[in-house]
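User: Reviewer 2 asked us to show a designed sequence for the structure in our supplementary figure. I'm pasting the structure tokens here. Could you produce the per-position amino acids so we can include them in the response letter?
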């Protein structure tokens, strides 16, 4: 990997803000898409040890484990952050994994629109960390800081909009447009050490595929495991795409 810390960030920043402007226009301009009531009908509804929808609830332990592992390495200075902006993005990312574990477990215990917002709040926190880290590594520290704040605010607003109106349009634009934005930034030369973006995007894509094939996987496995539980496991492993390439042997101040 070629590192180019001296490359001019101005052109990259302009392209980044243009892309963000397009996503904003789509988020507010596209028709409202209501949450599909069938979304809450998951294939595996087994109860285990008094836990309803047990495998969808308990599979969130992977988010919790990897989130806490990342936070421990973060606190001990064992992740190679180029600056404070990248460090803030890492903190938000791993904190988002922990919040996702709690919110998703709460939601799957008794799925409903009212509980779904807590699941999504954790995810938008983690997603803001991803976007901030990508903008920092591929554009500039300034872009990373601004993107971190912008993505966090936009994410929280999109979830609040869903809670108030029932429309998932802004949240969907943030999720799919955001991952497209990360992919687009990979064309730029990295200015510092960062995550394995191919692995992270790959984990996201596989997790979405498992989510959409929830009942089919449950049927193929004869009820052993559902696609949604596998989605949680694969999505949680995306944290390794950050931890492994950025981990330092010795404590590093960042």
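Assistant: Here is a per-position design you can include in the supplement:
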């Amino acid at each position: 990997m070629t590192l180019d810390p001296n490359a001019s960030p101005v052109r990259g920043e302009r392209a980044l803000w243009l892309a963000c402007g397009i996503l904003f226009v789509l988020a507010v301009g596209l028709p409202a898409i209501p949450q599909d009531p069938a979304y809450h009908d998951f294939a595996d509804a087994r109860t285990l040890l008094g836990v309803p929808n047990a495998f969808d609830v308990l599979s969130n332990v992977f988010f919790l484990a990897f989130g806490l592992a990342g936070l421990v390495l973060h606190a001990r200075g064992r992740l190679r952050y180029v600056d404070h902006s990248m460090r803030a993005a890492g903190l938000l990312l791993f904190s988002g994994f922990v919040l996702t574990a709690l919110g998703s477990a709460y939601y799957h215990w008794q799925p409903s629109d009212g509980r779904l917002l807590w699941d999504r709040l954790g995810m938008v926190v983690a997603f803001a960390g991803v976007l901030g880290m990508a903008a920092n590594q591929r554009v500039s520290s300034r872009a990373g800081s601004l993107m971190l704040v912008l993505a966090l605010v936009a994410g929280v607003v999109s979830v609040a909009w869903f809670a108030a109106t029932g429309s998932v349009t802004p949240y969907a634009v943030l999720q799919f447009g955001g991952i497209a934005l990360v992919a687009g930034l990979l064309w730029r030369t990295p200015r510092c050490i960062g995550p394995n973006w191919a692995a992270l995007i790959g984990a996201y894509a596989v997790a979405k595929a498992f989510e959409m094939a929830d009942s089919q996987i449950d049927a193929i496995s004869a009820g052993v495991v559902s696609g949604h539980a596998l989605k949680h496991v694969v999505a949680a492993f995306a944290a390794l795409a950050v931890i492994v390439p950025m981990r330092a042997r010795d404590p590093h101040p960042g």
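For the response letter, you might also mention the following. Residues 84-109 form the longest helix (26 residues). The CA atoms of residues 143 and 183 lie 16 Å apart.
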